[in-house]
Design a protein that fits this description.
alpha+beta, Thiol Ester Dehydrase, Chain A, elongated, six-stranded antiparallel sheet, 4 helices
Length: 153
């Protein structure tokens, strides 16, 4: 079962305050997908009157990272997670409310199972696509997550 969005957003306030103050919020999460929103505002804009790319990146990363964190929590194991690489593509100015969605939950389950069974670190690429209020894609981010079982000492 997924952690609640309310408790996750409280976690965001304390552990990732820059994302919280920029308006990044987890809206939905389950085993398969996560949805994160952020609204273009004065304090998260760039000089071109659209959302700063890094704010989009925070929202996109959260949509992937929330899935990873939730499945690690559900596994009951001590597993570290870290972004090793990322790629981004921007296709339209991000204005208004932008919604990022990641549907890569199954990839995480496989990587976690492999990490737990083998004791070896695992990597996986996850994709988050951001769309505006009209459903038009504004940006796509890919994150390479690394997962490693922590040693018991």
């Amino acid at each position: 079962m997924a952690a609640g969005t309310r408790s996750f957003n409280a976690f965001l306030f304390f552990k990732l305050p820059a994302a919280w103050w920029c308006g990044v919020r987890l809206r939905e999460i389950d085993q398969e997908h996560a949805v994160v929103t952020v609204r273009h505002r004065w304090f998260n804009q760039n000089p071109f009157n659209s959302m700063f790319w890094a704010v989009q990146g925070m929202a996109a990363e959260l949509s992937t990272g929330a899935l990873v964190m939730d499945q690690i929590r559900a596994s009951g194991k001590s597993i570290s997670m870290l972004v090793a690489n990322n790629k981004a593509h921007f296709s339209k100015k991000a204005t208004g409310k932008i919604t990022f969605r990641c549907d890569d939950g199954r990839k995480i389950a496989n990587a976690l199972e492999n990490a737990i069974q083998s004791g070896e670190g695992q990597t996986l690429w996850m994709t988050a696509t951001g769309v505006n209020e009209e459903g038009v894609p504004v940006s796509t981010f890919e994150f390479e997550w690394t997962l490693r079982l922590r040693s018991p000492h």
